[in-house]
Design brief:
This protein is of the alpha/beta class. The protein has 18 helices and 7 strands. Helix content is about 50%, strand content about 15%. The strands form 2 sheets. A 5-stranded mixed β-sheet has the order 5-4-3-6-7, with helices on both faces. Strands 1-2 form a two-stranded antiparallel ribbon.
Length: about 400
């Protein structure tokens, strides 16, 4: 709707500085108040069926009954308005419903600040400083708790039937439990769908991981509609390979090579790390599994006397390391590391680092869920060279690939 120039000229007649427009008693705040009150008066007329002071058209026993004051919070700060009232209290304004003391969108701002890691007190101070709105910590808690229902729906939503790649990793977060603060593990599953787009499939918490816990996670994915996973990339989480092979027996489990290298370098002095890392690279970048085995033999011959634990670790996990050698380069790049999910964990650490600990699991999950929603908004492009990888998946998993 275009406002006529003469009306704008009249409104701005006494304008001298920005405070006259956007200040505490500025034009915008006055206009908001008057327009709200005028709109509610119009709604009252519609509700009663006759104009004020026009009893001739009155077809109801209900009448206007003055007004009552109400304070509303918004980007403009606190706004005191007069809400019209009818005799039988049946009038409920559409523009500002009963019980609502904040404009639509204001709660979204609270949630957005919370999702970025700000504490309840920080949000309270921020809104006071920026908008001049005084809200209580209790209000912030109430608004963020309203997200809990969203979390439940999200965690139980149906999933696609087929996922070419699923990454799984964990992050540790301090949570109060039984009157003590513990480091609780939060496990995330990130899938790559047939379009090459990443999606967080779910989030689970546990004090201790194990085969029983992972079986529960994988079974939940199946119950939510997942029928097949081509490749599952994990970082050596205990029990997960066995669990996923129980529920999805055709899935190939690939151990994260980056985690293997990091684990290996823990046994090495700083002076030798560069050399050891270069020798390990000849193993996992070998063109074939036979060449990789040869390079592992060479590595052990060189380093077993001084660092026997490294070669032993690679031998013990060889069955989970070698699946990547069955795939062409484009697929190898997508599955040899769980970096796709580690970048998510890094972002989550940024929003949780301001908190010493969470009072309970629910508060922790709410914040992580909101942060994940922000992260997923950035996942608008397929992973690199996905079309080429998908063509290769179509050949390798021909009998399992759905029609696109």
């Amino acid at each position: 709707m275009t406002i006529p120039d003469d009306m704008l000229d009249a409104l701005m007649k006494n304008y001298k500085n920005p405070e006259d427009l956007i200040g505490e008693t500025g034009l915008l705040k006055q206009l908001t108040k008057q327009l709200l009150e005028r709109a509610m008066q119009a709604e009252m007329t519609e509700h009663l069926g006759y104009e004020k002071n026009d009893p001739a058209r009155k077809k109801t026993n209900n009448t206007r009954n003055g007004s009552y004051p109400k304070r509303v919070k918004g980007e403009f700060g606190n706004l005191d308005i007069e809400v019209p009232r009818d005799r039988d209290s049946s009038f409920d304004p559409v523009i500002l419903p009963k019980g609502q003391s904040r404009f639509t969108g204001f709660d979204d701002k609270i949630i957005a600040l919370y999702a970025r890691g700000m504490t309840t007190r920080d949000i309270q101070a921020h809104l006071e400083e920026i908008y001049g709105v005084d809200i209580s910590p209790t209000l912030v808690s109430q608004v963020t708790k309203a997200v809990q229902e969203e979390v439940v729906l999200w965690q139980n939503r149906p999933l696609d039937e087929v996922w070419p790649i699923v990454y799984l990793d964990a992050i540790r977060i301090k949570v109060r439990h039984d009157n003590r603060v513990i480091n609780k593990a939060v496990y995330l599953a990130v899938g790559v769908n047939l379009d090459g787009l990443k999606e967080v499939l779910g989030m689970w918490t546990a004090e201790n991981e194990g085969a029983k816990f992972w079986l529960q996670v994988v079974t939940e994915l199946k119950n939510r509609g997942v029928k097949d996973i081509f490749i599952a990339c994990v970082d050596g989480l205990k029990g997960f390979p066995e669990a996923i092979e129980t529920v999805f027996p055709d899935t190939q489990v690939q151990l994260c090579i980056v985690h293997m290298v990091r684990h290996s370098l823990n046994y090495v002095s700083w002076k030798q790390r560069k050399e050891v890392a270069a020798d390990l690279k000849t193993i996992y970048q070998a063109p074939t599994v036979e060449e990789a085995e040869f390079q592992l033999d060479q590595f052990e011959e060189k380093w077993n006397d001084s660092h026997p634990a490294i070669g032993k670790s690679w031998r013990n996990n060889w069955e989970r390391i070698t699946p990547l050698f069955s795939y062409p380069p484009d697929i190898r790049k997508a599955i040899y590391t769980t970096n796709a999910i580690e970048s998510v964990n890094m972002s989550l650490r940024k929003v949780t680092k301001t908190r010493g600990s969470f009072p309970n699991d629910e508060a922790m999950i709410r914040l992580l869920y909101l942060a994940l929603q922000n992260i997923e908004k950035k996942w608008t492009m397929p992973i690199r060279k996905w079309r080429s990888a998908l063509n290769q998946f179509s050949i390798i998993f021909e009998d399992r690939m759905p029609m696109l």
